[in-house]
Amino acid sequence: MPTKTASDVYAELFTANTLFVAAAAAMLVWVSWHGYRLQPARFLRIWAGAWAAYFVARLVTLVQLSAFGHGLSTAAQVALSAVSQSGYYLHVMLLCACVLVLRRRGARWVTPRRLILYAAVLVALSVGIAVGTAHSEFFTRLRWRVSLRSVLSAMAFACSGLMMLRHGRRIRRFGASFFGAALLLGALHLSVHAWAFGVRAMYAVAALLTGLEILEVAAIGFGLLLWAQEDKNDQLEQTRHAALQAAKLTGQLLSLARNPASGVRAIDVGREAREVLPLLRSLAGARVSVDLATDDGPLRVRMKRGHVEQILINLVTNGRDAIRGDGAIELRIRRRERGESAAIELLACDTGVGMSDEVRQRVGELFFTTKPSSGSGMGMASVRSIVEETGGVIEFSPRPGGGTEVRVSWPEAQATADTEVEDLTASAVGAASATVLLVEDDAMVRGVAERELRAVGLDVLVAPAAAEAEALARGHAGRIDLLLSDVVMPEGSGPQLAARLRAERPEMAVCFMSGFVGEGDGGELPPGARILEKPFTPAELVAFVRGVLSDASTTQS
């Protein structure tokens, strides 16, 4: 096999670099465009600078490898080498800075003054290597200029990749982990690059190097976009949850204004905790993990809706503030037998700095706080107030090895007529083939309710008002198992509609939906009426309807 000359190597490298620049440029334009729409401004400035430096280095390399570059003077070639080397080093440095910014650890290390200092050092290193190897033999120059750069870059990519993999697992973001894996791929590519140039085998692996580099760039961009989209979706979920909780609170206030006792019901603490878990993890932040474990079955306590969320949010917030650096908060909800009765326990354990005896005695006092610059003393006071109001007991104790354990205990509540049914299995006899008459004047609520009920196998007849519902019921030849009606409607109330339809279909079960519990504008609610409070989630709706159908089936049998 004939020996390759410097000109042959130049030609092969020029072709590989040209193909890569064309493919990577299109890829990075697309990635950067979407990144600008999803990422914070500070990160984007560093991200854009990293890839600008990279493409400048690539373009200068193409000039060096072209026929035009061959004819340049030694001084011009040294200058181009210094520029290209500097571009590659700056690219790696700025990508590492991106990692620190994304991990929110860059406040100290990623400042404009420090970045300028790092850049000056790298440029000086590049100029020194270019000048020092200017009169060396061709392959010697390649080994010093390319191999050294590749080794240092591979080390930086490997450290950043491992850091991002660990961070991605901690914050539960697949995109962040993928981004870290892409950086490790970059470390592999650069390691092969350094080896190939060090042993004069670059022409044998030129195609492999180009392929790895294109995969590296694509994977870095894809991981970044996936991570950004996951964050965006999470913020949409938090917004939805916050809006739902605000709407629930409004409904509670309206309900209590009509009937102060109506807000108290048997609440499944475990179910409420599972629903609010995404919000708790968001409040804890990336450094603190939040894990939840609950016993099987319903864990019911008599309290008002929203109280469980309020307790958990305050416990997690206080645990987070007590943790220095990385840590964990463990939540456990369980049923404990106590003679002939039972209790529901909520345990919240953190790995924070713990509490002194004096603080443990005063925690829960109104306006007492150990965070004078950021706390109001209202959080734990509200927790203690809710626990005592609902017949519970709260205790604080040190945790072995550091941290605090908060133990809340309530008497277990029995299921009642107004208890939501959590079991979403089709336990009702014939529930899968039951027919529901849905009456709701709000088009959005009506559409969501119809879709969710049909999704679990129920036949649904839909009407926007009482008159249409009566006509639909009289024209329906088959059985109607359940009437699910709004309480207050423009043309007649739900209770009045139920009375007229029950006169014709006495076997039909009846339940209502309402934003408040009390008197309807068109008539009184019947005694023992089953009511689903608005707003409700799809799961709550399905569980409520199946519970009513199950009770009706048991009564008829």
Structure explained in plain terms:
- There is one protein chain.
- It contains 16 helices and 12 strands.
- With 557 residues, it is α/β, with parallel strands linked by helices.
- It has 3 domains: 6-233, Rhopdopsin 7-helix transmembrane proteins (Up-down Bundle); 265-411, 2-Layer Sandwich (Heat Shock Protein 90); 431-556, Rossmann fold.
- It has a 5-stranded mixed β-sheet with strand order 2-4-5-7-6, with helices on one face. Strands 9-8-10-11-12 form a 5-stranded parallel β-sheet, sandwiched between helices.
- Helix 13 (443-455) links the parallel strand 8 (435-439) and strand 9.
- The protein is elongated and about 105 Å long.
What's the SSE blueprint?
Layout: H1 6-38, H2 41-65, H3 67-70, H4 74-102, H5 112-132, H6 138-171, H7 174-198, H8 206-258, E1 264-268, H9 269-284, E2 288-294, E3 300-304, H10 307-322, E4 327-338, E5 341-350, H11 357-362, H12 379-389, E6 393-398, E7 404-411, E8 435-439, H13 443-455, E9 459-463, H14 466-475, E10 482-486, H15 494-504, E11 509-514, E12 531-533, H16 538-556
Parallel strand pairs: 2-4, 8-9, 8-10, 10-11, 11-12
Antiparallel strand pairs: 1-3, 4-5, 5-7, 6-7
Helix pairs in contact: 1-2, 1-8, 2-4, 4-5, 4-6, 6-7, 7-8, 8-9, 9-10, 10-12, 13-16, 14-15
Mean pLDDT value: 77
How do the SSEs run, as a string of H and E? HHHHHHHHEHEEHEEHHEEEHEHEHEEH
- The CATH level-2 architecture of the largest domain is identified as Up-down Bundle
Quaternary organisation: single chain
Could you give a short account of the major beta sheet? 5 strands, mixed
Structural class: alpha/beta
